[in-house]
Amino acid sequence: MRDHRTIRSYPANLGHNVVEVWRKESLLPLLIGTGATAVSFLGDNSTIRYFDRHPMKTYGDVGRVLGTGAVAAVASTAILGVGRYANGDRFRAATYDMSQAVVVSFFYTLIIKESTRRDRPDHSDHLAFPSGHASNAFACATVWAEQYGWKAAVPGYLAAGFIAGSRLALKKHRLSDVVGRGDARRHRGAERGALGQEALAQAPARGAEGLARSRYRPRRLRAGHRHQRRLLTRCLPPIPAACASPSWRTTARCASSSGKPSATRATP
User: Are strands 248-250 and 263-265 parallel, antiparallel or unpaired?
Assistant: First the structure.
């Protein structure tokens, strides 16, 4: 399958993820983000006036450094390298997806910036819409939230909101520029659930030992969707308790139709 999370298939996955943004599943979030951006235009001037009356330069400088593209690229690359040697499949998948999300987000953010050419509030250039800092931050937060749920979503989105707000404090963006990052950050890569699909496709050819290992120790499936793990479990025949015991090594006779499993004691 093309969507394995490997360095060798990284370019193929990246190209696939660029196209995935325009699939039917992503159209609804895209429309919601567009509508939210249109509504946020009403608060552009009031946001600028607020930070004129309440300067927060230190806050803006901190967010500027944390959310810059160079920091996002270096951090995602470093985390990807660490993830290649990590033991946890979920962490390894999250690091891979994060690096892909940063690249896809940068690609679409740059295209929209060059297409709209919106002036910044401080008139420094014409690359205001959408905010690249906010796009990177929310793209990374979304990936970790999908892998770890609310435990990663709460700190991740709080950090992303912190970075997005800092761009308003420096008057580099208007409110609609920051809200508009929702259109640029959608990342629905095909690598999601790839490990689960791979194991499900290969399970029939593994034999009794492979089936028992897939059912009772689904280590390779932790990065995939939960419903794929449930589907794999339902598709497997009942495995005798002797075959599932970690102190016994199963053989092909465990899955025989006789219903009398035979196993040999594992060699210490």
Answer: antiparallel
Which of 79-83, 87-91, 93-97, 114-118 is predicted least confidently?
87-91
Q: What are the backbone angles phi and psi of residue 7, rounded to the nearest 5°?
A: -65, -35
In the chain, the amino acid numbered 198 is E
End-to-end CA distance of the chain: 37
Verify that 38 and 170 share a domain, yes or no. yes
Of the candidates 165, 141, 128, the residue with the CA atom closest to the CA atom of residue 76: 141
Whether the model pTM is above 0.90: no
Q: Are residues 166 and 221 in the same domain?
A: no
29 vs 180, 185, 256, 261, CA distance in Å? 12, 10, 49, 51
The structure tokens 């993830």 sit at 83
Long-range contacts of 116-121 (CB under 8 A, 24+ apart): 118/177, 120/171, 120/172, 120/173, 121/48, 121/171, 121/172, 121/173, 121/174
* CA pair distance 164, 177, nearest whole angstrom: 9
The answer to whether residue 231 sits within a structural domain is yes
Structural domain range at position 83 = 10-184
* Mean pLDDT score across all residues of the chain: 75
| Residues 56 and 145 occupy one common structural domain | yes
Please report how many Cα atoms fall inside a 13 Å half-sphere around the Cα of residue 179, on the Cβ side.
Answer: 18
Buried b (16+ CB within 10 A) or exposed e, 154-172: eebbebbeebbbbbbbbbb
Provide Rg for the chain, Cα atoms. 24
